[in-house]
Amino acid sequence: TAEVAQLRDEMRVIKSLLERQLAGFAWGEMARDTPTRAVLLGEMIEAGFSGQLARKLVQDMPEDMAPDEGRKWLKAAVNRRLRTLPTEADFIDRGGVYAIVGPTGVGKTTTTAKLAARCVVRYGADRLALLTTDGYRIGAQEQLRIYGRILGVPVFVVRDGEDLRRTLADLRDKHMVLIDTVGMSQRDRMVAEQAAMLMRSGEVNRLLLLNAGCRGDTLDDVVRAYAGEDLAGCIMTKVDEATALAPALDCIVRHGLTLSYVANGQRVPEDLHLPNRNYLLHRAFKTGAMESAHSLRDEEVSLAMAQSSSTVAGASFA
User: Fold this and answer.
1) Which residues have a Cβ under 8 Å from the Cβ of 66 and sit 6 or more positions away?
2) Any idea what DSSP says for residue 202?
3) Considering only CA atoms, which of 278, 280, 275, 282 is closest in space to residue 87?
4) Neighbouring-strand partners of residue 241
5) Which residues contact 68 (CB under 8 A, 6 or more apart)?
6) Residue in 292, 296, 258, 240 with CA at minimum distance from that of residue 54
7) Which of 97, 129, 182, 245 is close enough to 284 for a disulfide, judged by CB 3.0 to 4.6 Å?
């Protein structure tokens, strides 16, 4: 049995090496036959786009394009697939109940305060209520209470699903209710319990916060964990801390999410903006101006493509 297991392991290694070698051959053939596509594919991979999205866009690109024309075409292709909130009226004026969800440390409480400030400016403090379900972090409730006192908005603490339903019923005359939820790892089983509690509480829409500085596979993991019909959109946070925006935009495009806002700092409410497509695309396609430890050499691009080719992605294109 041990010999059979060892033989299987060796066969897996050989299979992986053959797949990567074949991918290298395919890359070399592409570089010879369509050098512009090969160059642009390498640039997208180095910028942080996934192999899945980069391959599809480069394959759909017309063959007779020069590199500069190709870059414009690729930007336009990503732009067409990117869903954004067109105007703030579509969110603030619509009103409703929104739960701010996401992993720990992504900025949920601060983002809740930013959204609350915008609603107060437009509709007044008496038309808004703040809720928090975060009873785990030390000072989490007090932080939201401080924001509530500054804005003149009441803050309610809910303990469980029944408490949430009663509180929302009492607040049904409010124009908007914002719920600051508990931050937890996307791999925590309580994520599903939290989503079920919110769905059972009535017309609660969830807004997912995505850290712009995370790796693409980590963002995919987050979106899969928090996915659901009640997911109204997403907010990209920590844009000022991210060196590349390609992984976050790539994830949003592949999963068909609606990008509602972009947060680029801690100031309330200034550092929250509607998505600026030109700025986001410029940042996403911008490669490093100087060599770094993460810059890919030409011979390493084929290895990266081979690795991404062997990965089965569950996301679908918008």
Assistant:
1) 36
2) S
3) 275
4) none
5) none
6) 296
7) 245
Burial 220-229 (b: 16+ CB within 10 A, else e): bbbbebbeee
String of DSSP letters for 236-262: EE-TTT-S--HHHHHHHHHTT-EEEEE
The whole-model pTM stands at 0.79
In angstroms, the Cα distances linking 150 to 4, 113, 118, 147, 267 are 68, 10, 13, 5, 14
C-alpha 104: how far from its chain's center? 14
Query: For the chain (length 318 residues), average pLDDT per consecutive 10?
Result: 84 79 62 72 87 89 86 93 81 88 89 92 92 69 86 88 87 92 74 77 88 91 86 91 91 94 85 91 77 59 54 39
Report residue 85 as tokens.
């909130």
Report the amino acid identity of residue 198.
L
